[in-house]
Amino acid sequence: MNLNELTNDWVNDFANPMIIAGPCSAESESQMLGTAKRLKESGAQISAFRAGIWKPRTKPNGFEGVGVIGLNWLKKVKEEYGFKTATEVANAHHVFAALEADVDILWIGARSTVNPFTVQEIAQALRGTNKPILVKNPVNPDLALWIGALERLLGQGIENVGAIHRGFSTYQKTKYRNIPNWQIALDFKNQFPNIPLFIDPSHICGNRTGLAGVAQEAFNVGYQGAIIESHEDPDNAWSDASQQITPEVLAEMISNLQIRNSDISGYEDEMGKHRTLISDMDFQLIELLSQRMKISEKIGTLKKENNIAIFQPERWKVITEYANQKASETGMSQDFIEKVFKAIHEESIEVQNGIMVNK
């Protein structure tokens, strides 16, 4: 069996969209029960209550979770409020403890997904379970690692799986804590349409203000659920305070989300006309890019003959300034235009490097 053969019927047992919500970290029994109580009373339509029991932190000596005692608090949330429960596992010990506590849904975090040895250890510890296991994308933009983690689970007979898109680390300063890199997630969705895909706007945004927008973007392209951090007192949370929201805000956010219909029957003709035009324009773009690269080859030859460095910072500055100006004039996103021109510039450098080395 391969990943494309999985049915993942488990997701049909939950509401659409499937929302997993709760505090970033379990801090105390009262905090857990208090948050769960307000989630229940707020009317937030959530499918499972989440809380981090073990918290992998970037630096030592920070709060790294309460440990096994927090699993008892998750049990009480289930008993008193009827929520299914979910938590992250990062090694075999975590898996055995979470399974013993009958946590309903487990996920593998981004820092674990990046390490095949860790994922293999977790997969082997999970062998035989029919609980849903979700896998967050690795911290670095590596689609193969993400897929590989799911394949390791399947290799241990785990067939109820899902994927969580939580964004990717970058050295660049952006409005996101972890940039979405939507194309990587959409490539995953294209390859494995049968695997439920969840959005984690909390970790993508790193703040409260952008959560609804990122979640809506995900549902616009057919995601099936979201995992969102909610705390009874977000400002005083022990971890990731700035990205957590109150249960009441979460309830309002969920009620405002628009779930899109994937059925285009009745719109095929009109959609087909637009897609034909786009395909024609795409062809023209490819032709123009091909011509541009041929000019880059001539420039590369000239630079080689005259021993001139390939990268010219002043020229790149002129290009980016012009691109930003045209973006403003046409009403397009400057971020988008900059990404396009960076990709073109990188390929142009690659072409010229090839000439320097091979000719």
TrEMBL record:
The keyword Transferase applies. Keywords: Transferase. Coiled coil: none annotated. It is an enzyme of class 5 (isomerase). Residues 265-356 form the Chorismate mutase domain. Gene3D superfamilies: Aldolase class I, Chorismate mutase. InterPro entries: Aldolase_TIM, Chorismate_II_sf, Class-I_DAHP_synthase, CM_dom_sf, CM_II_prokaryot, DAHP1/KDSA. One of its GO terms (biological process) is chorismate metabolic process. The keyword Transferase applies. Its EC number is 5.4.99.5. PROSITE patterns: CHORISMATE_MUT_2 (PS51168). GO terms for molecular function: chorismate mutase activity; transferase activity. This is chorismate mutase. The lineage of its organism: Bacteria, Pseudomonadati, Bacteroidota, Flavobacteriia, Flavobacteriales.
